[in-house]
Amino acid sequence: MAPHQHGRDAQIWYRLAEAETRAVMRSLPEPLRARLADVVIRYEEAPGPELLSEGFGDDLLGLFSGATCAEPADAVGPLPATITLYIANLRDEAQDDRTRFRQEVRTTLLHEVGHYLGLDEDAIEARGC
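Below the sequence we write its predicted structure tokens.
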């Protein structure tokens, strides 16, 4: 993973990710938006040591954790369903191009929404996310 500047530059990328997340959510059909209302969307710089020790790669773009919409809310513990987007990795994937970054955020977010809906990797890939 390439090093990234912190401070003002990093804030720009977080704001771009948040803006794209809002745009994606607005573009979804109302019934799906309503289903996603309780899903927490977080932004982190990169996966932490705990995820890496669980076997996730250091190039992870996003991660869904928690109960899917088909499972009881307490099926995997007391924490809410969460989608985490990893800003530095998304920047690397987009080669620091803002247009490509927004597209990577969109694609990754929709991929993780697919997991929330209970789809596995093959089903998500078949849908192009």
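The mean pLDDT is 86.
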